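[PROTEIN RECORD]
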Amino acid sequence: MANEHTYVSQTGTRAISVNKVLKNTYILLALTLLFSAAVAFVSMSLGLPHPGLIITLVGFYGLLFLTHKFQNSGLGILFVFALTGFMGLTIGPIISHYITAIPNGHQIVVAAMSTTGIIFFGLSAYILVTGKNMAFMGGMLFAGILAAFVLMIGNLFFQSPALQLAIAAMFVLLMSGLIMYQTSEIIHGGETNYVLATVTLFVSIYNLFQSLLMLFGVFGDE
């Protein structure tokens, strides 16, 4: 009887902890998405140019490193906003290009944004409702993202539109899988740090949106 009581108590404590991580993750994710969108809007309004690949990579991985380093302190949250704000700064000129240089650019941006939202909420809801454990996807996602990244770097030299399209399609699938995986990790206790969970979900949404933007632009004959 005592063992049963202890088990029930531990289960209840674990459930409370999981719900807290999930709640904090979604609150922080919502705030960072709004902040990133605001930075992107400012970037577009000022007509700021894209910082370029080198600065983008250095800024992203530098801020990502700092976020991981200070994940358990208040500075971790500060660096999450710095990272997501920086990503908003990089996506602003891309959105601006679609809107100003392409006749139906507004529709493409709205379609990519709407589809991103539908995919995120749909996949998240699926995992939350079914409670499926997607831990088995971790290795496959890591290998897939690494392969896609290598192809992306290689295409800087080959400049192949077909390869670029294939990479965008790969990222849509990989980021969709990452959303399911990260949500599953939260509800099953595999991820207990809401700062890191937020970063993973934000990066997934960012890459998903950017990839869909490219695909919709191509399918729109632009």
